[in-house]
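Subject — a protein and its fold

Tokens — whole-number codes for backbone shape
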Amino acid sequence: MEFVALIFISYINKKMQEQGLYKAYTMQQMLGKLDVIECFRNPGHKLRVGILEKQKELYIKLGVVPPTLL
């Protein structure tokens, strides 16, 4: 588990350096920004994921497709 977490952190670190995100965020701040994802459930419909526009921009800058479904 720790090894996999290290791979994720290394990837985020590399992307943050490439995108110049360390000018605005520390690693801890970035993880905090991406940590809150809301889910909405309506009877008879798929579970929907809600993220803020700023979070969507950060996901894109990190090279990750923003979540839309779980």
User: Anything to note?
Assistant: The radius of gyration is 14 Å.
